[in-house]
Structure to design on (736 residues):
């Protein structure tokens, strides 16, 4: 039997669950629109300076980007498994899978940190701070502005996602969830998949410009 | 009645941690009214400067005045006041729910709003901002004033607006009482729902825009800075992609209030229920397609201009549908001219002028002449103040007895309405003509021949002020000494009037079973 009590303004658990789910989906829509602004700036500038984007993207580390893509896709898989385990009353395995997901996030951020420090070291920085002289195109700083804004905002979302996963882990350990109530695990999962999905767009758009 | 009403239950401190939508609505109302007063002071200061052609304040000080007036009125009063204050209080009750879907999030969104407002207000004491509320680049990147504080404040308040909109959308979808079908929802709920769609879909874009503007200043990223290869027009597109739909965040809820008030004070079923309901959604939809009309003279392509001009004129259709249906509702109705109805009628009258002058501005060749003149200032004040503020005041008086259990004094209400309505027209009607003569907006000095009309306008602003001071005085008075309100002083049919005034903490003792639409005035109760 679950310890969870349904908030009194809901009629039943189903209504509460559906409300939460709709709320999270709507929130994801706002996230997409938030990133949408950056994608619009990307599209506009890439249309204007295609050869600069190609030249600048050669200075991003494809291997590290690819590793991060693999790490995030794996983490989405373990997250989905965790939700499924939580639904089936298997808290122990859910906890392990959540831990793996969390560690994947950690690996992602570590690789990102290594990439960032390398860029900062070389002077591949946004806007006025750009001081790298191997790219001749005068608009190249714009590309690195986009790179840092897009991956930076995404990195922030990864950190928030990791925070949520940590919170869900604590609650899973405490035994808050079972087959009748596991909404936070599922909602965190939905959010984490979006964070993953945004990266799947960012990776080719920034690293793999042919 | 065994339960205490929502105002009395628990102590004073219980208000700060409350999750009750009614209390959160009241807290929003109080906060927004404080900002209305502050924004109003800046409005008076602007008009005082413009009383004479020469300078009274320096240009820099004047720039800060109109920036604060605009930013405070838009972001801290007009955008939140109807949805977050009146909407919070009445949306759940009107659909027969005990609360919004996420009460904790609702309280969080209030505190986030206050946090954002304080951030922006901090700029007041750290030198002010002189960019205008639109923060156009590249000036907003270069000015030495506190742009970062205000734009971060806007970002944070936007987050609060998103959470409120999200909460309302889920509430409307998931918490309607049994029998409360979409087509039985009061039109105020439809309007708030349409508003919530815009809040959720448009606000993130101002979020990223303000964030990038902050980054321009902190890191020099250059997206909007021509010196670094960026595009300042891109900023204008981003800004108006939110801020034009935001205009409908401001006006749609007011239209919802008018739909309620007109039908109640005509004691007649609303004419064209579905037409009014769906025209709200139509306005929300079209609102996303018209932002380019703010850039007719900024170097947009002629094809873009042509399209945006055409799309802008489309807005007139659903708007006119509403105006005609309200008018038809009054036809052969039993009209009661109490204060809420006076404000509702003012709305129809003033908003029609505001809307039609909007069509002048949507016409490309006319706009070239009128762009950035006082004609535009007059137009948007007729829409925002003649529309939204009149709608808000209609709703405030209409629901005041339900919110606080006391009647406002009717005679004083009418006197105050008279000052506000007359003062409003005295202030802004001359500005149409000034704009047509070519007086540009946002200057602290003007040519001698504009003096008379500017003085008329300034006197008008004092009349408005008298009206508002009187209103604040009698509203505060009525809280303590006002006549006790009955449950249904207006003889209205919607659900909130079946509850005691003020309602208990849990709204309904039993979930209501809804069996008919909200405006069944077939049988009149005396």
């Amino acid at each position: 039997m679950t310890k969870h009590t349904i908030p009194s303004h809901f009629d039943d658990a189903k209504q509460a669950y559906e409300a939460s789910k709709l709320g999270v989906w709507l929130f994801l829509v706002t996230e997409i629109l938030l990133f949408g602004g950056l994608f619009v700036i990307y599209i506009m500038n890439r249309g204007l300076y295609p050869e600069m984007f190609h030249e600048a993207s050669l200075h991003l580390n494809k291997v590290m980007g690819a590793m991060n893509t693999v790490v995030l896709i794996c983490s989405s898989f373990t997250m989905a498994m965790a939700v499924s385990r939580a639904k089936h009353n298997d808290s122990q395995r859910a906890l392990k899978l959540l831990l793996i997901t969390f560690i994947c996030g950690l690996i992602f951020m570590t690789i990102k940190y290594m990439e960032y420090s390398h860029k900062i070291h070389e002077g591949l920085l946004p806007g006025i701070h750009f001081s790298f002289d191997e790219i001749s195109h005068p608009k190249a700083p714009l590309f690195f502005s986009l790179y840092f804004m897009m991956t930076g905002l995404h990195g922030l979302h990864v950190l928030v996602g990791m925070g949520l996963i940590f919170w869900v882990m604590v609650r899973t350990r405490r035994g808050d969830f079972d087959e009748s109530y596991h909404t936070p695990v599922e909602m965190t999962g939905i959010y984490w998949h979006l964070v993953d999905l945004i990266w799947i767009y960012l990776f080719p758009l920034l690293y793999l410009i042919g | 009645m065994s339960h205490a009403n929502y105002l009395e239950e628990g102590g004073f401190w219980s208000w700060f941690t409350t999750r009750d939508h009614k209390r959160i609505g009241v807290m929003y109302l109080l906060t927004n009214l404080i900002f209305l007063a502050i924004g109003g002071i800046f409005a008076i200061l602007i008009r005082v400067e413009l009383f004479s052609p020469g300078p009274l304040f320096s240009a820099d000080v004047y720039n800060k005045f109109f920036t604060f007036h605009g930013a405070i009125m838009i972001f801290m009063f007009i955008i939140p006041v109807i949805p977050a204050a009146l909407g919070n209080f009445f949306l759940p009750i009107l659909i027969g729910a005990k609360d919004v879907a996420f009460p904790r999030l609702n309280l969080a969104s209030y505190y986030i709003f206050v946090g954002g407002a304080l951030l922006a207000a901090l700029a007041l004491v750290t030198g002010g901002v002189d960019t205008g509320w639109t923060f156009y680049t590249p000036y907003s990147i270069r000015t030495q004033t506190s742009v970062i504080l205000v734009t971060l404040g806007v970002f944070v308040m936007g987050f609060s607006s998103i959470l409120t909109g999200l909460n309302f959308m889920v509430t409307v979808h998931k918490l309607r009482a049994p029998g409360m079908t979409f087509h039985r929802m009061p039109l105020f709920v439809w309007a708030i729902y349409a508003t919530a769609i815009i809040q959720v879909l448009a606000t993130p874009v101002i979020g990223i825009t303000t964030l990038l503007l902050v980054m321009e200043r902190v890191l020099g990223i250059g997206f909007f800075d021509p010196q670094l290869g960026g595009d300042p027009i891109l900023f204008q597109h981003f800004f108006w992609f939110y801020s034009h739909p935001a205009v409908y965040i401001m006006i749609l809820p007011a239209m919802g209030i008018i739909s309620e008030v007109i039908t109640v004070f005509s004691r007649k079923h609303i004419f064209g229920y579905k037409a009014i309901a769906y025209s709200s959604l139509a306005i929300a939809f079209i609102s996303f397609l018209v932002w380019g009309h703010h850039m007719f003279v900024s170097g947009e392509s002629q094809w873009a201009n042509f399209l945006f001009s055409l799309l802008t004129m489309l807005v007139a259709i659903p708007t006119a549908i509403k105006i005609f249906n309200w008018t038809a509702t009054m036809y052969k109705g039993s009209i009661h001219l109490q204060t809420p109805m006076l404000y509702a009628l003012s709305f129809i009258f003033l908003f029609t002028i505001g809307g039609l002058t909007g069509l002048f501005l949507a016409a490309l060749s006319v706009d070239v002449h009128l762009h950035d003149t006082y004609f535009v200032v007059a137009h948007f004040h007729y829409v925002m103040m003649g529309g939204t503020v009149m709608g808000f005041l209609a709703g405030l008086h209409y629901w005041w007895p339900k919110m606080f259990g006391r009647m406002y004094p009717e005679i004083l209400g009418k006197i105050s309405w008279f000052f506000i309505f007359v003062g409003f027209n005295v202030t802004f009607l001359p500005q149409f003509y000034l704009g047509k003569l070519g007086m540009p907006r946002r200057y602290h000095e003007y040519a001698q021949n504009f003096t008379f009309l500017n003085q008329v306008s300034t006197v008008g602003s004092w009349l408005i002020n008298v009206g508002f001071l009187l209103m604040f005085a009698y509203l505060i008075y009525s809280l303590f000494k006002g006549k006790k309100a009955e449950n249904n002083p207006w003889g209205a049919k919607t659900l909130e009037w079946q509850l005691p005034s003020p309602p208990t903490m849990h709204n309904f003792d039993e979930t209501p079973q809804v069996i008919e639409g909200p405006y069944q005035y077939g049988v009149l109760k005396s």
